[in-house]
Design brief:
Elements lengths: L2 E4 L4 E6 L2 E3 L21 H7 L2 H9 L14 H22 L6 H20 L6 H29 L8 H9 L2 H20 L8 H9 L12 H12 L1 H26 L9 H12 L12 H67 L2 H13 L1
Antiparallel strand pairs: 1-2, 2-3
Helix pairs in contact: 3-5, 4-5, 5-7, 7-8, 9-12, 10-11, 10-12
Amino acid sequence: MPRNHSAEEGLWMRTSPGKDVESGRRVTMMMNSAGDGLLSASSDSSAAGGHGSDSLRGKQGARLSLLGKPLIYSAQSGRRNVRYRRLQNYLYNVLERPRAWAFIYHAFVFILVFSCLILSVFSTIPAHQDTSSYSLLILEFVMIVVFGLEYIIRIWSAGCCCRYRGWQGRLRFARKPFCVIDIIVLIASVAVVSAGSQGNIFATSVLRSLRFLQILRMVRMDRRGGTWKLLGSVVYAHSKELVTAWYIGFLVLIFSSFLVYLVENKINNEFATYADALWWGTITLTTIGYGDKTPKTWTGRMLSAGFALLGISFFALPAGILGSGFALKVQEQHRQKHFEKRRNPAAYLIQVLFKFLFINLALTKSPCFRNLVTKIKLYT
């Protein structure tokens, strides 16, 4: 396979009949501070050399695309390509990896979602249903426009990543969980707005179900999944302790419910079945205490008091385990950030030290340096 070098374009490339292999391009050309762009032709060389560049291209042959068609590049198209990639990368960072003032947009989106949630709550109250439903319809239309444009920009800007380039890469990006949630919410919003424009807001149970799907907008606020990753890491790190606490708590629950059921079954109609006793045990041991079922015999009350003191300790134990796990994880993250801040200065210091030792070793082996040191000793 021949290797060609274009003096005007300043890049190496391999060509074969009907193919254009772009792996040899110099990526650094894209970040040229002079703004020459990628694959730009030099007008100065063509003006000075006359037909030199044309003859060079004639010897090398025209560059071919994947379809076998010649590719024509110019300085203007190169600059446009650089601006295109830069805009794509910028929008991807704003939407997927927000920093600095980019949080203003995400705060605006959160206010829209939270306002929609509040209006959805008020729309179920008869006294505020008419006003809130009309305001909610307008807000839904605004959110469809905003989220629709955002979804399109997300899919387009994902092309700045190598794994998401091309239509297959875009499809891979669209299959991400949060992108699936976005498209589901968009479809639900369009269905609700189209029905609401005809005066049928929340008229059927189907529309109410679609309205419930819009609550998923609150989930999309954490697109990076940092909250769920932190929770998963804490649960995984303390999985043995949590399983032990839940297992003992479950045993206390079934034994206490069964004993109270045996004592209260024939006297108290509230414990007619073992399912009623399990419901009572769950509400009692989790310290909720609805009061809809209570033992009436002294034996049942004594059993309830004893198992409540025993069971509440195991049912409340997972909360303490998770709390301590979260605290340790946050300390670890702060420690990691502090380590990353000190890593670059430490690496620079090590590099300077090695340079100093290398220069010192080289000087000590030099004859000129030895003579200089000897003369200094004689004069001193």
